[in-house]
Amino acid sequence: MTAHEIIIRPIVSERSFDLMEENKYTFEVARDANKYQIKDAVEELFNVKVTSVNTINVKPKTKRVRYVAGKTRQWKKAIVTLAEGDSIEIYGNQA
């Protein structure tokens, strides 16, 4: 798998922005990627030093639209901690 196949997209939420102050960044990653592959992909794509990777398998939730019941998709989330002094500019120039 290439780095672009492993890192799917950054997660944008209030919690993820709060974690950025602690030098932790949140990404949606491929479900079959392990922590070592995620670390190598982030280091390759963003030219930073990764100190740790925490992964979470997000389980699907049951949702209903009128009379039809279904589930949301299952996906994997990774919280990547960077070394001191490193940062990732997700949105270019942030205020």
Automatic annotation (TrEMBL):
Top-rank lineage group of the source organism: Bacteria
Gene3D superfamilies to which the protein is assigned, alphabetical: 3.30.70.330
A GO molecular function held by the record: structural constituent of ribosome
BP GO annotations: translation
Keywords: Ribonucleoprotein, Ribosomal protein, RNA-binding, rRNA-binding
One Pfam family recorded for the sequence: Ribosomal_L23
GO CC entries: ribonucleoprotein complex; ribosome
Cited InterPro entries: Nucleotide-bd_a/b_plait_sf, Ribosomal_uL23-like, Ribosomal_uL23/eL15/eS24_sf
SUPFAM superfamilies: Ribosomal proteins S24e, L23 and L15e
Keyword flag Ribosomal protein: yes
Subunit and partners: Part of the 50S ribosomal subunit. Contacts protein L29, and trigger factor when it is bound to the ribosome.
Protein function: One of the early assembly proteins it binds 23S rRNA. One of the proteins that surrounds the polypeptide exit tunnel on the outside of the ribosome. Forms the main docking site for trigger factor binding to the ribosome.
Family stated for the protein in its record: Belongs to the universal ribosomal protein uL23 family.
PANTHER family reported for this sequence: 60S RIBOSOMAL PROTEIN L23A
Protein name (record): Large ribosomal subunit protein uL23
